[in-house]
C-alpha cells in the first residue's frame, strides 16, 4: 500500500528501573568498558561503497592514534563478553579491522568488524544508543521467533550481535528471479509465516531492507528463512497494518509471489501453523514473557494516540474487548498473545476430545 506511512522520527525511550531489573535477571545487563558516546569522538571518516560503487550509507571512521588503541582494547572486551565468557586470553588473536558509522535511520549504529588473526575469520557486532522499545523487540524476537538473539545493555548503550543473511531488498532484486519454482513456493510460504509472526508480536516497519533472507543448504535443495534485523518499531505505531509486512510497497514482489504460488487454503494453513508455534513458545517462556510484558505495561514506548488507535484496530480484527480497552502497548500485546494462546488451546482441546 503506497499510503502506508511510518512516523518520521520515533523518539528513543529511556530504560526504566523496572526494565533494567529484568535485564539484570536474565543476564542482558553487563558493565561495558565503552559507551556509545565514546565512539562518537572520531576525527574523520570516508564513505563506504559496495562492490558496484554504490554508497552504502555507512562511513568508515577513524580516531587519533592514542584513542584508537584504547577503543580497540575496549571493543575486544565487549566482543569477548558478547560471544564468550570475557576471557582476555583471546585478545592477542583479535583485530578490530573497521569501525563504521551509519547516519541513516533512528539508531545511528556503529558496526564493528572483529577478525581472528589466526584464521582470518571475522564477524560483526553493533554499538547503538539504547532504546527501551528496541530492547523489547529484541527480547520478544528471542522468545517468540525461531531465532535466539544475543545482546548486552549497560546504561544508555546497547550491543547487538550481527544477524547474517541477504538483505531482503537485495535478495528480491538480484536473487529471487533466478530461484527455482519450488524455491519460490518455499519463499512464499516463509513470507506468509514471517508476516503472521510480525503481526502477532507487533513488530512494525518490516520493509524489505529491514529483514534478511537466510538460505540454508539441506541435502539436495536450499531452504530459505526470513529474519527481522531491525527492532526499532516494536509496539510504537498506531496503524495495525504497519505490523503486517504484506502492506508495504517494498514487499509487493513477495506479496505477488504468495498470490501466484500458494492457494488461499494453504495460506490459512500456514497462518494457523505459525500461530500455534508462537503459542507454544509463549507458553514455554511464560514466566519470562510475563515479566517482560509487565515491564511494557508500565513503560512509555508510544503515544496515547497510537495506543488508542492500535487497540481499536486490533479489536476490529479480533473482537476481544480486553484489547479494545487497553491503555498501554504492553496491555495490547498481552491480550493479543492471550488471544492466540486461547485459540491454540481450544483447537488442542477439540482435537483431544
3D structure, described in words:
With 353 residues, the chain is α+β, with helices and mostly antiparallel strands. Helices cover 45% and strands 18% of the residues. The strands form two sheets. The chain has a seven-stranded antiparallel sheet. Strands 8-9-10 form a three-stranded antiparallel sheet. A hairpin with a 5-residue loop joins strand 4 (110-116) and strand 5. Helix 6 crosses helix 7 (252-261). The longest helix has 24 residues, at 329-352. The N and C termini lie far apart (43 Å). 34% of the residues are buried. Residues 349-353 have low confidence and may be disordered.
Radius of gyration: 21 Å
Shape: globular
The helical percent reads: 40-55%
Strand order of the main beta sheet, please?
1-2-3-4-5-7-6
Number of strands: 10
Largest sheet: 7 strands, antiparallel
Estimate the mean pLDDT confidence: 93
Strand residue content: 15-25%
Structural class: alpha+beta
Quick synopsis:
The chain has twelve helices and ten strands. By secondary structure, the protein is an alpha+beta fold.
Which labels suit this protein?
353 residues; alpha+beta; 3-stranded antiparallel beta sheet; 12 helices; 45% helix
Question: Which helices and strands, and how do they pair?
Answer:
Layout (H helix, E strand, L loop, with lengths): L16 H9 L10 H4 L4 E6 L5 E8 L2 H19 L10 E9 L7 E7 L5 E8 L2 H13 L6 E4 L2 E5 L4 E2 H7 L6 H21 L9 E8 L2 E8 L23 H10 L2 H21 L1 H12 L6 H15 L2 H4 L4 H24 L1
Antiparallel strand pairs: 1-2, 2-3, 3-4, 4-5, 5-7, 6-7, 8-9, 9-10
Helix pairs in contact: 6-7, 6-8, 8-12, 9-12, 10-12
Amino acid at each position: 500500500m503506497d499510503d502506508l506511512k511510518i512516523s518520521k522520527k520515533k523518539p528513543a525511550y529511556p530504560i526504566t528501573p523496572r526494565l533494567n531489573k529484568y535485564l539484570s535477571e536474565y543476564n542482558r545487563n553487563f558493565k561495558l568498558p565503552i559507551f556509545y558516546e565514546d565512539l562518537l569522538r572520531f576525527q574523520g571518516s570516508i564513505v563506504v561503497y559496495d562492490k558496484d560503487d554504490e554508497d552504502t550509507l555507512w562511513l568508515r571512521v577513524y580516531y587519533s592514534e592514542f584513542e584508537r588503541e584504547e577503543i580497540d582494547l575496549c571493543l575486544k572486551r565487549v566482543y569477548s563478553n558478547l560471544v564468550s565468557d570475557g576471557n582476555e586470553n583471546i585478545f592477542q588473536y583479535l583485530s578490530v579491522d573497521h569501525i563504521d558509522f551509519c547516519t541513516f535511520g533512528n539508531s545511528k549504529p556503529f558496526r564493528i568488524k572483529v577478525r581472528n588473526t589466526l584464521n582470518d575469520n571475522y564477524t560483526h557486532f553493533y554499538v547503538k544508543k539504547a532504546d527501551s522499545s528496541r530492547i523489547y523487540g529484541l527480547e520478544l524476537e528471542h522468545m517468540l521467533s525461531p531465532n535466539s538473539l544475543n545482546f548486552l545493555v549497560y546504561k544508555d548503550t546497547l550491543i547487538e550481535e550481527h544477524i547474517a543473511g541477504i538483505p531482503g531488498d537485495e535478495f528480491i532484486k538480484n536473487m529471487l528471479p533466478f530461484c527455482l519454482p519450488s524455491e519460490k513456493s518455499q519463499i512464499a510460504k516463509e513470507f506468509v509465516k514471517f508476516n503472521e509472526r510480525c503481526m502477532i508480536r507487533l513488530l512494525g516497519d518490516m520493509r524489505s531492507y529491514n529483514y534478511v533472507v537466510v538460505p540454508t543448504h539441506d541435502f539436495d535443495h536450499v531452504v530459505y528463512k526470513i529474519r527481522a534485523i531491525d527492532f526499532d518499531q516494536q509496539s510504537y505505531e498506531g496503524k495495525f497494518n504497519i505490523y503486517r509486512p504484506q502492506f508495504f510497497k517494498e514487499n509487493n514482489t513477495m506479496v505477488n509471489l504468495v498470490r501466484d504460488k500458494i492457494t488461499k487454503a494453504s495460506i490459512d494453513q500456514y497462518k494457523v501453523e505459525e500461530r500455534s508455534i508462537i503459542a507454544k513458545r509463549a507458553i514455554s517462556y511464560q514466566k519470562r514473557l510475563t515479566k517482560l510484558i509487565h515491564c511494557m505495561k508500565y513503560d512509555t514506548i508510544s503515544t496515547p494516540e497510537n495506543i488508542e488507535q492500535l487497540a481499536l484496530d486490533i479489536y476490529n480484527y479480533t473482537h476481544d474487548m480486553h484489547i479494545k480497552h487497553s491503555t498501554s502497548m504492553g496491555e495490547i500485546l498481552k491480550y493479543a498473545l492471550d488471544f492466540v494462546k486461547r485459540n491454540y488451546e481450544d483447537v488442542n482441546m477439540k482435537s483431544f476430545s
